[in-house]
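[09:14] KT: can someone run the structure on this one? pasting the chain below
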Amino acid sequence: MYKSVIRPFFFLFDPEKIHHFTFSLIKILSKIPGIPFIFRSLFTISDKKLERQLFGLTFKNPVGLAAGFDKNAVLYNELANFGFGFIEIGTVTPKAQAGNPKKRIFRLKADNGLINRMGFNNNGIEAAIEKLKQNKGHVLIGGNIGKNTTTMPADYTKDYVACFEALHPYVDYFVLNVSCPNVGSHAKLTDKDYLIALITTIQKANATHTNQKPVLLKIAPDLNPVQLDEIIEIVAETKIDGIIASNTSTIREGLKASSQQLEAIGNGGLSGKPIKDRSTAVIKYLADKSNKAFPIIGVGGIHTAEDALEKLEAGADLVQIYTGFIYEGPSLAKKINKAILGRN
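[09:31] RB: done, structure tokens below
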């Protein structure tokens, strides 16, 4: 029903507007007695065989919702009813910011993809905390953190530390987002020496807490082997807890969308089916080259259960969905978990 009726209707409207409409709809429906139970009955699988122990955390299943979907932590309690083992909020920045000018998200229907240049639009760290105080404890929460657009390069690390310290009591793990193509000074954020300094600073802050939280690094799918080798070296040197592979892509090769359409859209990060193989290749390279020395969360182009299994077989320990959730509908997490059980 979703792909034949609901999605065609939703796709008649602007992606960002329909995103907010869907949030409001789920919020309203979830307040009706019995509806959350119906959602759980339709979209979740509970089985001990799906549990994963990672970073000192117990994930009730290995399928998560990637950052960017619930930026401001306004719907994670309701989204927990759709079969996710963990939900990543953010990217959150210290101060609220509007992001890039609209229109800033575009569907590539023929490619089952999206291009976005949102620019870390979010309500800021304090607003996120107020929402996270309402956590009902149904699902593990990750905090994806970044810097404000107006922050000067010398203060980038201060932004990450500010988010880390403020969010620390409210999330189960952290993700340092240094790979989004829609923010300024991308070069510094991916510089090896800066990354080591950033991670080291965050880890020093983490060490001051009695309940230390896992910290992961989110990388781009466009890194070449030399850059991926540097990532492996960074993990070895800093002992960061893991890698999320991968973020959106700036590469436009092999798309069914016309050059005219792409030119009209302009810059932005590509997600969905078109980056599936690139993301999987990054996962496999990191896992094989490091001899599986660190955990990997695989994300990028997961639209089917087979796509998720491919990520896991390449070396991912957990997977996340985003664009696939939009294109395939609310049953995707359940389908993936059912396939994982079938593989066990």
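[09:33] KT: thanks! The chain has a mean pLDDT of 96.
[09:34] RB: yep, looked fine to me
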